[in-house]
Each structure stands twice: as structure tokens, then as C-alpha cells.
Amino acid sequence: MSTPARPAPKKRKHLIDFDNPPVVSREAEARLTRVQQWVMSALLVTTALHLAAGLVVAAAAIDGHLDARVGLMVIAGLVGLLGMGIGLAIHQRSPLHPLLLLGLLPALAGIPWVF
């Protein structure tokens, strides 16, 4: 006598079914791309601005060497501008956008504190 055949187990919907991959619409891909752009630009810009602020703090910590202070402040401004420019490029905007000037904010805010 043969044993009765067991029914196939139900597929769990919360697991990935590699035999039937989900179909992704163009709208969903576009939304995902926008989210990825915003995350990458936010990470890059905040990292660059933190680095620029750290250079301002380093310039304030130097005693007596005016040329070193000025140099660090210039580098802080360039790092901020570069970070904002790359952040704009991630969003496929022109790097010569008015938001680019926000990159100078750490250096400009640090001028009264450093000098």
C-alpha cells in the first residue's frame, strides 16, 4: 500500500521567491533612484561640511601663525564648496547653482572666531 501524497507546502509570502521575481515598475525604480540620490547627497554634504568645520576648529587652535590659520580657512572654504558641488552633481544640477554658496558657510562663520 502506498502512502498518500502530501500536498505541496504553501509558499510564504514574506520570503523571496527566486523562481518568480517581483516585477518592478518604472515609477518604483524612479522613486528608488530619487531616494538613493538624496541619501548619497545628504551623506556627502554633511561629511564635507563637518570636515570644513573641523578645519575651522583646527585653524582656531593654532597660536601665532597667521599664515597657517588663513591657509586652513581657505581649505575649509574649498572643501565646503567641493562638497556642495558634488552634492548638486549627484542630483544632476549645474554645479554653478546658488546653493553652492552654502559650502562657504563653515568658513565664513568661523572667521570671527578664528581671527
Characterise the protein shown here.
By secondary structure, the chain is mainly α. It has helices spanning 26-61, 66-90, 105-114. Helix 1 runs parallel beside helix 3.
Topology summary:
Blueprint: H1 26-61, H2 66-90, H3 105-114
What is the count of DSSP helices, taking H or I runs of 4+ residues?
A: 3
Count the beta strands: 0
Overall structural class, as computed from helix and strand content, comes to mainly alpha
Strand content: under 5%
Contiguous runs where pLDDT drops below 50 for at least 5 residues: none
Mean pLDDT: 91
Q: How are helices and strands ordered from N to C?
A: HHH
- Radius of gyration equals 26 Å
Report the major sheet.
none
> How helical, in percent, are the residues?
55-70%
Query: In angstroms, what separates the terminal alpha carbons?
Result: 96 Å
Could you say which overall geometry the principal axes of the C-alpha atoms support?
A: elongated
